Amino acid sequence: MAIQLSIAKDFSETPGPRSREEGEFSGDEFREVLLEPKFLEARQANEQLLVDLDGTAGYATSFLEAAFGGLAREYEPSEVLKLIRLACTDEPSLIEEVQKYIREARMPQRNEPKG
Description:
Helices cover about 50% and strands about 10% of the residues.
């Protein structure tokens, strides 16, 4: 049985911009408050996390990239893709778009000591 998360019901019907500084209901806020804790819950329970994208007024690409790409920068993109299952009947192309943000997420570069 999958752990479920609905962006419209659990977060907002009007998802906002990338960061909290840019406005309410940001992708960063969604990732920090709901997505990452639910992701970790699913990981701990060895379950999938079903994220329902339906029911919102739409998404800014920056929201989706900050939320899902941001998660994949914290954890391995392959693990994120394995644990998260996306559902979207309103606009099915969003599933591929979100998966692309996860696949293309770049892990932060660690500065290697010189010398």
